[in-house]
Amino acid sequence: MKSKISFYSGLIIITILGYLIFFTSCVKFDEEEEQDTYFIVEVDSIDLTDTITTADTLFISFYGTVGNNSCYSFSHFYPQTNEDTINVEVWGKLAPGENCDSGLVYLEGEQLNIINFDEGTYFVHVKQPDGSLLTDSLAVIPVVSR
Q1: Looking at residues 53-81, what average pLDDT do you find?
Q2: Per-residue pLDDT at 127 exceeds 80
Q3: Cβ atoms of 100 and 94 closer than 8 Å
Q4: 8 A C-beta contact, residue 58 and residue 79
Q5: Coil, helix or strand for 93?
Q6: Residue 45 CA from chain centroid, whole number
Q7: Do 91 and 77 form a contact (C-beta atoms < 8 A)?
Q8: For the residues 66-88, what does the mean pLDDT come to?
Q9: Which residues make beta-bridge pairs with 138?
Q10: What DSSP character marks residue 31?
Q11: Each residue of 6-64: pLDDT tens digit?
């Protein structure tokens, strides 16, 4: 009697293991799930005023192509200022997927706002994907009191 229980227990365990192996081999596990990719956007042009006062906010609008389908989007700005230079990186994001509509995605005037300037001339450097810079400049003048 004892050997029949062991035989049936072993048979049940082997059957369960067989089913587990069979069914898990049919399930697709996405081991390498596609993740978002971030990249520096190529900026065609920027728009900014040529003179502001020390009390003003600088508004810089950016134009360029982010990507060639709807899986691309603008992500963020990475600005750094030091003395008389404003260095800006414009970052885009590619969110991979199968439902990406075709068509170019543009920056369309994405705006960066910067405050707290001292008097002087400032240079704006926008880093491009190839390492080159798109440059412009502006003058910051003191506030005139009346």
Answers
A1: 97
A2: yes
A3: no
A4: no
A5: strand
A6: 19
A7: yes
A8: 96
A9: 122
A10: T
A11: 666 655 666 666 665 666 555 554 545 679 999 999 999 999 999 999 999 999 999 99
Identity at 16, one-letter amino acid code: I
Which residues are 73's β-sheet partners? 93
Q: In terms of C-beta density within 10 A (0-12 exposed, 13-18 middle, 19 or more buried), how is residue 46 classed?
A: buried
Which residues does 1 contact at the CB level (< 8 Å), separation at least 6? none
Who's near 89: CB < 8 A, 6+ residues apart? 40, 77, 78, 79, 126, 127
**So what's the pLDDT on residue 97?**
81
Helices within the chain (DSSP H only): 2-26
- Take residue 137 and report the two structure tokens written for it: 């400049």
Retrieve residue 54's tokens. 């020390």
| Nearest 10 degrees: Cα torsion 95, 78, 42, 129 | -90
